[in-house]
Amino acid sequence: MFSRLPAPPAGVVRSDVMASLVVFLIAVPLCVGVAVASGVPAELGLVTGIVGGLVAGILPGSSLQVSGPAAGLTVLVYEAIQTHGLAALGVIVLASGVLQMALGAARCGRWFRGISVAVVQGMLAGIGLVLILGQVYAMVDLSAPGSGPEKIGDLPTLVVDTASSRTAVSAFLVGAGTIAVLGLWKRVAGRLSQAFPAPLAAVALATIAVAVLDLPVATVKVQGLIKSLQPLDLGDFFRLGDMAVLGTVVAFALIASAESLFSAAAVDRIHNGPRTNYNKELMAQGVGNTVCGLLGALPMTAVIVRSSANVRAGAQTKVSRVLHGVWLLLFAALLPAALAVIPLAALAGVLIHAGGKLIPVRELVPLWREHRGEAVVLVVTALAIVATNMFEGVLLGLLMAVAKAAWETSVVHLEVDDSHARRIRVRLTGNATFLRLPKILDTLEALPPDRLIDLDLSGLHHLDHSCHTAMTSWAQQHNEDGTEVVRVKIPPTPPP
């Protein structure tokens, strides 16, 4: 006999319903804004939000974090569409989802927690910078140049073009007003901000201002929910034979997974409910992205803005995130025309504000004082993403983090005791690797040639092949005439 699960208390249901409405109101402008900035129909952002609620929302992993299209993937999606075309987006997202499920099945979820925090912060900062640079152009109804350096180089021209165009000035004022409302809403609105989140209030006020003042600014283009879907066909899978496409798949999967699992760790710190199972959450994200790929929608990640709002609004179970997907579905199906009145400049303002939050300005100075190497990794990763692209920037950051860790752990101490008249004792302790070989050889070669030398390596925790070969070769050179000028004491061989 199966026992029926007890129904949740009425208070829990009420809290989850109210939280779902708050998250829904935050999700609408963000879903639409991320889609427009990514270069896809606005409705596809809502589709990804719906899948995040109705598919990933019911799966085990994390109970309270909310998934959907994220500003953090906007840059990567835009680059993929520009390189491979919109038709390739679905198969890329689907393959990324399958890869995420494979990583989850292989229990790799917890390994994402081992990624250098400096690299992750640098990745988010780089995304924020590229997002801001791109949306500055969108905020005046202009198309942004392709690369980061071009965006920066064309800023003076953007200022001149904006000042000479009434349409551009109007759009700029709408976007700037949106950013101002986002920054001041909680202070001005007080308790009202809980019922009307800042992104919704900012976009709503901008839309009303454009309509009342009859401003000549561009608005969202609406195609309709069904028409916007781009289901896959069998021919799309042949694109996976392209190595560039496969590289994009790996980038999507790794970055989306890292962002989702770091979001889960952050959400776990602000509530007292069940902790996240990282492997199951990675599987849930993979299933969600597989469905998004089948529909030709944007990739999905867990989003910290919506997730933290869900917790703070009183959510206690996963019902809140599932209901947020239901509200998005109803909105997309019944009120799609409402999107057509939203100014693009307002959405650009929302994303510029979101991009600014990704840049850890306050944390950078303390990090520089306490962990200078970590600060360098963060800054270089961010600037590399702006200068090149997401994948190459993150790869450079990871390589720098590994090199930094190798340098810091490869610490060797040399003690030279020349107090005896005829013999010098040189003792090495720590970790002797090729990174420290120049220092070791400089010390050895500076020793007087007319003294006997005891080279004691028994205190080393690690002696790599390069150091062992170099030091034994140096000893052999001094012992060529048959006399043991240099005696080497090597570390004991560990038992098998």
Automatic annotation (TrEMBL):
Keywords: Membrane, Transmembrane, Transmembrane helix
Domain SLC26A/SulP transporter intervals: 14-381
UniProt-listed Pfam families: Sulfate_transp
Superkingdom of this protein's organism: Bacteria
Topology versus the membrane: Multi-pass membrane protein
Entries under PANTHER family matching the protein: SULFATE TRANSPORTER (PTHR11814)
Designated name of the protein: SulP family inorganic anion transporter
